Amino acid sequence: METSIGPFGETEISKVVEYITTLQPQPRIITFTGNLGAGKTTLIRALLKAANSSDEISSPTFGIVNEYHTGKGRLVCHTDWYRARSAEELMDAGLLEYIHNDDCLMLIEWPEVGAPLLEGENCLHIHIEHHEQQRLYRFTDRLS
Q: Which of 53, 94, 97, 107 has the most CB atoms less than 10 A away?
């Protein structure tokens, strides 16, 4: 499966959120790739806002994992693997507990180093290409 939507300006992010939230079956793990400043955390904020989360959303670059809850109480784990050096480091940080928790929606920025941990999981991979004021979103079921 591979689909692209856009290009969209930042104000049109609701179209991307709508696309993601209408996918069936809903992915349990969503990864986000793209250059620095591509809009990964911005998209995650928009997804959580659409899920009626009242939590303050911030990038977990230094803390590795931030936990949030949707308006319906579902656990959302937002993690950033930019600074991770290996999949083993991520396992030592306890991330397998989140990856294998079927009641948790996982949102992962910079997933490449931990790709082996995601094998066999129900994942949606989103690559964001940012050019000037426009973003193109590519959705796949394989991390590329």
A: 107
Q: Which of 70, 56, 57, 66 is nearest to 108 (CA)?
A: 66
The beta strands (E) that lie in 27-142 are given as: 29-33, 65-69, 75-80, 104-109, 123-131, 134-140
Nearest to 3 by CA among 134, 127, 111: 127
Distance in angstroms (rounded) separating the CA atoms of residues 13 and 34: 16
**CATH number of 2-140: 3.40.50.300, 3.30.70.3090, 3.40.718.10, 3.30.470.20?**
3.40.50.300
Cβ-Cβ contacts under 8 Å for 97 (sequence gap 6 or more) = none
The CA distance from 23 to 10, in Å, is 21
> pLDDT tens digits for 35-63?
988 889 999 999 999 998 877 777 776 67
